[in-house]
Amino acid sequence: MNNRFSWIFLAASGAFFVFIVGLTGYRIEDARRHNAAAARESASSLAAKVRSLADTTGSVQSPLFKNAMRSVFDSEARLMLVSLHTPQDGIVYLVTKSRTALKDPATITPEWRGTPTYQVNRGSELLLSSSLESTAPGLTMDTLFLIMGREDLYPVVRDDLYFFLAFLLVFGVAILIVMSIEQDTGTGSSRAREGASSPGPGQGGWAASAQPASREPPAAARQGPEGAGRAEASAGGHAETPARGLISPRTGLVWGEHLEPRLKAELDRAAAADSDISLAQLRIDEPFADSRLPMAYVGIARVLKESFPLGDLIFESGDDSFTLVLPDTDVDTAVRQLDELRRKLAAQRVEDRTRTLSIGVTSRGGRLIEENVLRDEARVAVAKAAREGGNQVVGFRADPARFRETLTGRVT
């Protein structure tokens, strides 16, 4: 990137930083002012309730008054402390969410007299005092409110994060655009330099062609008769066909030729992690004479991809079959998942008619087996499902103990 864009990026980053800091400070201060105003209103309302309760119960020290005040205190989420005190009697009523809010006295005793002091966090808490002389001589009510807590900071931090991500997105796109323009400009300049370095007809180009030609034989001659034959074949349009890719363009599934190496790799991984793996063979319950079968094959492939998100583990297996690898899945779980697929497919129409599947599934089941054994078991299971009427799932359940006995017999 050029220096001009770098300077623009630095200037924009600085401006964005100033903007975020200013916006954050403004929003925090605005929340504090709003909550402080709400706290003052709550304190006035609370003083009125204390006067009313004192008149009703007859005393601020009665159990009825204390119970009523506790309910009022619990209903105010931001109210941290309520203290009623007189110079003669000291603290006559105190309720708080944290004892650390009361600084002096640390422990309330009947002998203590005076005005209490509090531990107030400046900036996040607000202490308000109200005189209740009309209720009792010298009675004062202190209230401590939380005016800036985590619930106030969360939306500010969240919005700052959104602004930051938007800034990165915008400049990320801008960087890609600048790099693309510079690449196009560099390519054009390179081509221009190449054109300028090649002499034209008026610059001695035709004279250069009069020089003796190189004595190096042509490529076909150096390669002998076989090389010449290949060159002629290429010239005639008979070049070798390139190998096809991993995914079938017809269905979007993996070609069947890639099943064996992938299944072997998944079996090795399952054996190393001591986990299970299942293999399913799915066959369409259709006669081969059905002219719509190729389109039905594509439609069923689409349902498979919607039902199983691991698209690189779904393979074509001819014009009427599919193979599905299910990692970390035992045979019982695989049977349930595949039965859901079978019911889902049978409940919809594909190419103007209902299509059904015969499905056979097997699993490693704690055995150390090769991929061809797992494939043979899946074929046996799907053949049984088709033979018994189709539109069903058959699970091949191997006996690990019997399998180990068979292996031991072979070894001995």
**N- and C-termini, Cα separation:** 71 Å
Number of strands: 11
CATH class of the largest domain: Alpha Beta
Overall pLDDT metric? 80
**Order of helices and strands, N to C?**
HHEEEEEEHHHHHEHEEHEHEH
Radius of gyration: 42 Å
Q: What is the third-level CATH name, the topology of the largest domain?
A: Alpha-Beta Plaits
Based on CA inertia axes, which overall geometry fits? elongated
- The percent range for helix content is 40-55%
CATH architectural category of the largest domain? 2-Layer Sandwich
Compute the number of structural domains. 2
Taking the sheet with the most strands, its summary is: 5 strands, mixed
Strand content: 15-25%
CATH superfamily of the largest domain: Reverse transcriptase/Diguanylate cyclase domain
Spatial order of the strands forming the largest sheet: 8-9-7-10-11
Helix-strand makeup class: alpha+beta
- Which regions are unreliable across 5 or more consecutive residues at pLDDT < 50? 196-239
- Quickly count the helices: 11
Structural commentary:
With 412 residues, this protein is of the alpha+beta class. It has 2 domains: 3-150; 256-411, 2-Layer Sandwich (Alpha-Beta Plaits). The chain is 51% helix and 16% strand. It has helices at residues 3-57, 63-75, 150-197, 205-209, 219-222, 224-235, 259-273, 293-307, 331-346, 371-387, 400-411; strands spanning 79-86, 90-96, 102-104, 117-118, 125-131, 140-146, 277-284, 314-316, 321-327, 357-363, 392-396. It has a 5-stranded mixed sheet. A 4-stranded antiparallel sheet has the order 2-1-6-5, with helices on one face. Helix 1 packs antiparallel against helix 3. The longest helix has 55 residues, at 3-57. The chain is elongated and about 100 Å long.
